[in-house]
Amino acid sequence: MDSKMDEKVWVNIEEFLRNNLKINDHFGNEYDVEETLGEGAFGVVYRAIPRGSVQTQELKEEVAIKEIKVESLDNLDDAVKEVVMLKGVPPHQNVVKIYDDLSWYTLPENEDNILFDDQDDIQPDDMLNALKTGEAGTVDCRGIKFYIVMELLSRTLEKKEAMTDEIDSIWNRVLSLTDGLEHLHKNNIFHGDLEPNNVCLRDEDSLVLIDFGLSGRGSMQVLHRNASNSSLPSKIHKSYDMVDYAGIIFAISYLYNHYPEYDFDIRSLLYEWGKEDLRGKVLNELVAPLGADDAGRVTEVIVQCVNNRDLNSRHLIPSISAVSQAIHKTESYNKTCEGLKKFCELAGIEFEQRMLYRAWYEELIAAVPEDLRSSDDELIRDKLTEFADDDFPYLKVYNSITVDKIEELAKAYKMILYIVMEYLPIQLTEETAVAKNTNTLWNRIQSLTAGLHHLQRQHGTFDGNLNPNNLRSKNKDKIVLIDFGWSGVGSMRRQGILNKYHPPDVKPVKDDGSDPVYQVNHSWDVGAYGVILFDFFHIYAKYLEFRSQTSKKAQENSVFEDSFENSTEAEKRTLLIDRFSKFLGNDADRIVEMIVQCTHRDMNKRPSMSTVIYILHQTDDYVVTRRALTYFCHFAEIRFEERMLYKSWYEELIKAVPDDRPDLHQRLNESINGDFPYLAVFKYVGVKDIMSLADAYRAAHPHTLPQNLAIAKA
């Protein structure tokens, strides 16, 4: 076997087959079954009463008995695994109590259903050898069943009667769910299926974890999927528990604001809101049931778990140990906050809950100068990297690095922030925005992009009124954001007059004769960024034309600007490629598409600033996604286009999915809010499904077959 878990399961299979194999009638003489509580693909749960036999004399109350079916020896280890997991967990008030585990074997009633060629000689070694040699199909084991006897808990969170509008109960439920999951993870066990129907109420204040059919140690390949788990990844481990945990504590708190309405699928909002809006929107929902202080801490837990759920950032999800310490405000949590507040004071910034976790800590590591050394002559960057896996990484920094080095760290971190309050007299007008060479042009664009990305991604904040009047030029090559009078978190109302840097078709939410009121969010910034990007390149093109004394081109500039503002996406591509390709060269398609997508009239289809910065810098995710889409285009017999990287094209792909593939439709929808939606599809969907997608897309969007591909096929 490959892992310790497998070895342990194998030992229990041997023990079961050698010592517990017995012919018996259902529950023997130990329990009276009263009713069936539920039935699924792999088992049945009964309500039963102990008869008071020698084995059950200590049980005074009704119990639940879960019958686990074994269809073949191939999945016998799956059946044993649940028993092993439950027996291996020390008792805890927030984990279901296990009273007993029973296992029986019943001979098939039909004489044709024989176990072996010689049924008169049933030996456990025959079963063991069949498993070891991969010949389990020769063994009929449909009579093997496991029975787990546990406490009877009838109310799960998915039932409406479990809802409460008692604030104390809501907080106690959050605490009890945290404690139960922490107990499992401390014993190196992940639950694997943390859903509302697997969380029960022992009383109004206490939640209990049940159903360990998909639990395991380390990581585990999922072989069996039922209806409720159709979207589980191929491997599950503790970080998946954390994402599910975040969804449940959010739903518990969110539903308080909407009592007595009830729908636990409200967890999907966490994925629909998007990474930039998540912090503000969750906080708005949690303040009422949890109070401002607790809401801030719980909100950050949810944000860290949900926003880092992608494959490439899953290592940034905090452990349940760190979460529990934050929820309970332990001494370690308080000391870390104390240290970070002193750091923030030195850096001239405000303390944020996100600084407790690894995602921010990696920002800090990146800011450390490579040659900065501690008092014992160690490189501080290396020392910080050693602490990265701790529950609260900064706590060890605070305890092990001298004050003067902490001050140097703070100064280094401040240097990477583009949002600084300083005197910057050079306003960005058309005259001062002229870049005299491509290096200056690119440096300005990169600094503007980095500043806006930092504002949105790291702080969850939007600018709201991004335009050249609120930008300053620093050292000619750097653009700095100033004036945050319209800024906010999530989505907020702002009053004022719009300009060309605001969405073109947006309607006010209030217009009573004074300045209209608008609902402002991150998409406003993305659109303004796209227009400013257009301005930068357009001004640079005019500068080049002026130098070459093409007065006719200069006279056409105003007409070109009007054409851009009033054009469709396809028309914008044609206009911009024609004008900018002369000095952008091979970057033209990539940059033009970025401008087109950022200024998309449908604000819901605009990319996040994370997507923009990845494309601008051509990161690994960008390169891999582009390569994956090239394969897709080969199957679909179409040409790759830069627009395929964005949400607007991805929605076309979803619409092309055949009606008879709801599983594929669900998988695509789950990835729609990622930075590169198709990347998740490429990683989690098999080649056959990719080919099916390509065929469906080609049928829905017929294109001319590229000449070189046509020749290859011929």
TrEMBL record:
<dbReference type="InterPro" id="IPR011009">
    <property type="entry name" value="Kinase-like_dom_sf"/>
</dbReference>
<keyword id="KW-0547">Nucleotide-binding</keyword>
<protein>
    <submittedName>
        <fullName>CMK2</fullName>
    </submittedName>
</protein>
<dbReference type="GO" id="GO:0005524">
    <property type="term" value="F:ATP binding"/>
</dbReference>
<keyword id="KW-0808">Transferase</keyword>
<feature type="domain" description="Protein kinase">
    <location>
        <begin position="340"/>
        <end position="623"/>
    </location>
</feature>
<keyword id="KW-0067">ATP-binding</keyword>
<dbReference type="InterPro" id="IPR000719">
    <property type="entry name" value="Prot_kinase_dom"/>
</dbReference>
<keyword id="KW-0418">Kinase</keyword>
<dbReference type="InterPro" id="IPR050339">
    <property type="entry name" value="CC_SR_Kinase"/>
</dbReference>
<dbReference type="GO" id="GO:0110031">
    <property type="term" value="P:negative regulation of G2/MI transition of meiotic cell cycle"/>
</dbReference>
<dbReference type="InterPro" id="IPR017441">
    <property type="entry name" value="Protein_kinase_ATP_BS"/>
</dbReference>
<feature type="binding site">
    <location>
        <position position="66"/>
    </location>
    <ligand>
        <name>ATP</name>
    </ligand>
</feature>
<feature type="domain" description="Protein kinase">
    <location>
        <begin position="31"/>
        <end position="327"/>
    </location>
</feature>
<dbReference type="GO" id="GO:0004672">
    <property type="term" value="F:protein kinase activity"/>
</dbReference>
<dbReference type="Pfam" id="PF00069">
    <property type="entry name" value="Pkinase"/>
</dbReference>
<dbReference type="GO" id="GO:0005737">
    <property type="term" value="C:cytoplasm"/>
</dbReference>
<dbReference type="GO" id="GO:0005634">
    <property type="term" value="C:nucleus"/>
</dbReference>
